Input
Amino acid sequence: MEIKFGGEFVANQKPEEVYAFLVDPKRFCPLLPDYESMQPLDDKTFLVKLRVGISHIRGTAAVKLTLAESDKPKHALYQGTGDVPGGTATLRAGFDLVPDSGGTKVVWSGKANVVGRIASLAGGLLEPLAKKNVQKLIDSLQVALT
Amino acid sequence: MKTKRKADTRGTLRATAETKWVGKPLLRKEEARLVRGAGIFTDDHKLAGMLHIRFVRSPYGHANIKRLDVSRAANSPGVLCTLTGAEVAAMVQPFIEIGPGPGQKVLDYPMAVSKVVFQGEPVAAVVAETRLAAEDAAELVEVEYESLPPVLTAEEAVKDLSVLHPGAATNLLWHGKFEYGQVDKAFAKAAHIVHIGRMHFHRFSSTPLENNAVIGFWDSKENCINFWSNNSFPAFAAQFLSPALGVGIDQIKMQSFDIGGGFGIKITNYPYMALCALASRKAGGRPVKWSETRTEHMLGSAHGNERTFFDTRVALDKGGLILAIESRHIDDCGAYPRYEPLGCIIWAQVLPGAYRIKNVRFDISQICSNKCPVGPNRGYSRMQHLWFLERVIDICAHELGIPSDQMRLRNYIRADEFPYTTPNGCVYDSGDYAQMLQIAKTIIGWDAWKEKQTQGRGEGRMLGIGIGTTLDSGTNNFGQAQIINAFAPYSGQSKAANIKLDIYGEVVVSLGSVPQGQGHETTASQVVAEVLNIPPDLVRVKPGFDSEQNVYTGHTGTYASQFAVTGLSAIHGAAVKLKKEISRLASHALKASEKDLEFGVGEKGPEVRVKGGKHKSINYWGLANLVNTNNAGIPEDLWDIALNCRYVYHAPFAVPDLKRKYGNLTLTYAAQLHIAVIEVDRETFQPKILAYAAVDDCGRAINPMIVEGQVHGATAHGLGAALMETCAYDSDGSMTTATFSDYTPITAMNMPDLLYGHLESPSPFSYNGAKGMGEGGAAPIHTVCAALQDALFSSGIIINDSHNTGDTIFQAFELAKSGQTPPLVKLESRHGAR
Output
């Protein structure tokens, strides 16, 4: 199943600072909801482990994220794939940064595809949960960048 | 759920004056064992040193396998070995394909090798000492996929934008044209032509209580592979397994136990049999058991065929008589053909349905898609076709303003026309569809409901009354496979049985049949009891497939509505042979002529005695003794008597004319006629059945209680399919109804009160007048659709899908209101036609 999300917010920090935060997995990853650990694999790729659960399917998700596009200080895009309990997910999350009254307008959008038993068993719950978690991430980002 | 009996038959052969045991509603012999939990199923079977296998299955519907790592699983506690697709491909040949052309180039291995083509396809396996150890280790297998665009509809498949099987190079696996009569001429003289757009028969499945289960044991000492399984067509499975596993077919030994339902789909569990055998070999020759979970069953066993009907045109005369039909059908066999493309001919067993349609032109294709492979599912292939014909009849009736019962009466094959030869050469043995309709109308109270409907409609209620007529063609001629592929090595139909007087005079019947709840032990006992004039309780029946200990032929299995004809004919033949041997032996023992002997039960059990009360008799133990123990002095001309008689029944078939696609494809034609009264709620659009009648005609009923039970089961299956059950996939190819919570199989809570009636039109083609039955699953689907059509036609809604729920009906209303879609049906009436 495909889940799309997107929105925008304004951060107090300048685009260069926002960009530096977004492309630094050590700072960015802990903001992910249910974050457990992060292990760099190369300069653009890292493995994030998240403690996730939906309904009776619970466990650790291992997601390999790659910084696929970067255009300092305007744009960053992550692509990832990972095994979640009972399925597999691919995702794409992009950030476009626009100067805004001394701060930065962050326009974010993304798409996740979840396949497997988790989509079969918990499809109806998955989209609201994903949207809730994405919103948590954005809220945390806003706090971190303010 | 309760059953009310309101109507009886015209009572032809049911009268027990002619028979003592056949035709009686005896309680099932199997019941005592099964309802007390004393049955033995495959999963109950335990062997010394037995291991357990767990499959790792693809979460994707369509993807390349980029990386597969089983090392962590292999090193997990209790794990003996793992299996990967690459290993499997090195050990086996792909399964044979029945179809010619592109289908021949499909590489169907029991495990995905480099690509997955349906969600739930096995990509690896773990073999461990315990089931739990295997499950834990399976979670450690790492697989990396590259997703590919899934193919999920017939329309997408034929475009070939994404192709499942590179070898085949297309998703279109089979195509054929079927034309009989003078179609163009019929259209030229038609008073009305009805054009019908896309119609769709949805994908659903059987939900047997017992999932698939297999134990495989590669015995290198005996140089054979042993299978214990619940496969319901073992003789057929062996033909697939032998070349794939690279062993002679005589090296494959199979045994079945009690089976908890199947309805056809356990025919295609042989890929899992192959994997258990390979796992056994790799694990050093220890037996390996696989016991399927429910979710595995829903995802990766087999579903029923999905079929889409395009561009239908129907020619009718002024009075609504159908003169011709032409249409284009695309059948979806899922990811691998397996039993297919046999479904592309099996529909032709009932080409005109219950109707006198002489001129037809059907274009039939089969495609593959990224869904679970299909398997024969109750009413297999005929169900989809008969649903199509019933929709045609019903839509035409509404378009022409002809009452649905009158429309059918005008088109039904009449009782005096039987045996009736269809345009493609099938011979319908007997029937009286008009009489069945009358019985159904009587038991449901047709006239009263019509009045209520008129009144209810005046109050704004959406009430519909629908009729569904279906045929259950039984005892198939495997020669029809040659219409699909002229080189298919199958034809005819046969069954074997063995009956013996055991050493102590016990009557023991051996069957190779694979009952899954059909009551074979009971009906077999009734037939033998009738021949030998003993109570059925004195007949011991050993059903179940056992390639070493039991009798079988290449057609042996339980499928295609045939046991009452083929199985019981074999038993009857064997019983008659045994009776003759007993008679000859008793004649010698009693020093009486055979014609002066009679069979019965005396003080010392079953016996043969001299007629006329001369008190000269010998019981079965005595007779068996003369052959097996105390046999000195038996004259040489009786030495051929073994009291152990095998009989093979051959159905009287010829190979069809392959060029004309013409011939008799099935021996008997049972029929079901159902009527439903349904109301669609104005607020929720939820359909509710207010009354339901089911009338069955399976010729002479060997055991009316078993027949009635099977009618209940088939009706439940069909109602579930019509209103609740669907194998739904999302746009990524993930099945969204892979649990019972989502699939919602019908339960007793959802069943309406069933008004049951029956008619007996004895078949002239079976020795006992019986017809095969039990596959009438389609009748409720036709009937519910017809009732919904009746309820919703005035709202501008055409029922063009076999699955209808409150949600789909709401969507149909929204679509009708929007006026954004072209009309699905167009009526073209010639000048002066009305």
Remarks:
- DSSP finds 22 helices and 31 strands in chain B.
- Residues 60 and 119 of chain B are 5 Å apart (CA to CA).
- Residues 1-16 of chain B have pLDDT under 50 and may be disordered.
